[in-house]
Amino acid sequence: MPQRGRPRGFDVDEALERAVEVFWRQGYEGASVTDLTEAMGINKPSLYAAFGGKEELFRKAVARYAEKDMGYARDAFAQPTAYEVVATLLRENVIAVTRTDRPAGCLSIQGGTSCSTDNAPIAGFLAASRLGGEGALADRLARAVAEGDLPAHADPVALARFIMIVTEGQAVHAAAGVSREDLRQAAEIALAGFAAASGARLPEQATRPV
Amino acid sequence: MPQRGRPRGFDVDEALERAVEVFWRQGYEGASVTDLTEAMGINKPSLYAAFGGKEELFRKAVARYAEKDMGYARDAFAQPTAYEVVATLLRENVIAVTRTDRPAGCLSIQGGTSCSTDNAPIAGFLAASRLGGEGALADRLARAVAEGDLPAHADPVALARFIMIVTEGQAVHAAAGVSREDLRQAAEIALAGFAAASGARLPEQATRPV
DNA sequence: AGCATTCTGTACCGAGCGGTACGTATCCGA
DNA sequence: TCGGATACGTACCGCTCGGTACAGAATGCT
């Protein structure tokens, strides 16, 4: 039973993509349902039928954002060494928050760091999802310690926190209009700090015989 | 002519203080005029008479916040060496964004990183004021280069940007509920990164004979 | 005492909010 | 060809938004 009744007049994925951009630019509270439907090219009842409501749409938008716009994190985690994981993460983050074909910054922060009391769950949801990413990075760095890639005294949780703090700051900065090249400089400083604090082997040291 | 007509029934400064906290917790758009007047203990016409409107109140709240809650920045800039300037800034920022008698995070970010199109100027205003602080730090670090406190190859603008990115990330993290001690760890990693990237003399090196 | 001046509280404004009822259009299966 | 099912557009719901009109209350000045 592929479909019964009148078929949808719009592409759900494409509409969700537009919603991502509106939420990204204007935040959850700053994006009205009218703003959303206009950008999505649909009417309000279609939005409610297809997505359930503004809050559900937002959660789906965040999920899609994590899937598509933060895909670089998966690639970064797959790097062989902790240094390369972090270097990839920081550098790809700079690119992601300064794409010209996307709003500046990061949906996870632009979506709303603070909310009215009614919408407090939204800010909490975003904060939790950010901290989830931090936990994943900490796990990856812990693996690096277990593998001997990072020294035993390195603190994966603290290091992951530092990296995530930098990426969040980058996103805030990008939303303020700071250029990609300027953010890249900051990423390199952060990377140097990570290397110093973690005792990570640099790529040169890893590939070149000591 | 000290006062003519009926005297004010509330303390303007105290009311502004309450407004700061509401904006800080809920953001500009998330804070309704009713939320504000209830916290300030006044009625709407009093708010409009005393402060001019919601947006003017917000700008005054931000000014007061910068004066009182970011006063540590002035102290930090007065430190004798670049290393101590940055160390004080990072450490005091951690304390400021995790005060138990204040909302978590920083008004300059919680106030709103994104807004509805109508309120776009608010996000721009906050972004500009943050970048203003970054410029002041860059100036202070440039002075350190001129004084020989930082090596000639150090880039004050890039370093200031990195530090501000970290403090912004700390504020986002604090708003997510991360503890003061956890943020302090991150601040020390950032400080190490600053020292490495700038070539700053550490306090020990500065006081101890080489 | 009386008046101009200023502040206070109530009650209200038009507009926009998120969300929905309902009649119509368009599909599949029988 | 017709009925069940689904999606569509219009027009509307109650509510809250930021902001204000207005009348009464409290002061200083004369």
TrEMBL record, chains A, B:
Boundaries of every HTH tetR-type domain copy: 9-69
PROSITE patterns: HTH_TETR_1, HTH_TETR_2
DNA-binding region: 32-51
InterPro entries named in the record: DNA-bd_HTH_TetR-type_CS (IPR023772), Homeodomain-like_sf (IPR009057), HTH_TetR (IPR001647), Tet_transcr_reg_TetR-rel_C_sf (IPR036271)
A Pfam family assignment: TetR_N
Key words of the record: DNA-binding, Transcription, Transcription regulation
Official protein name in the record: TetR/AcrR family transcriptional regulator
Phylogenetic placement of the source organism: Bacteria, Bacillati, Actinomycetota, Actinomycetes, Micromonosporales
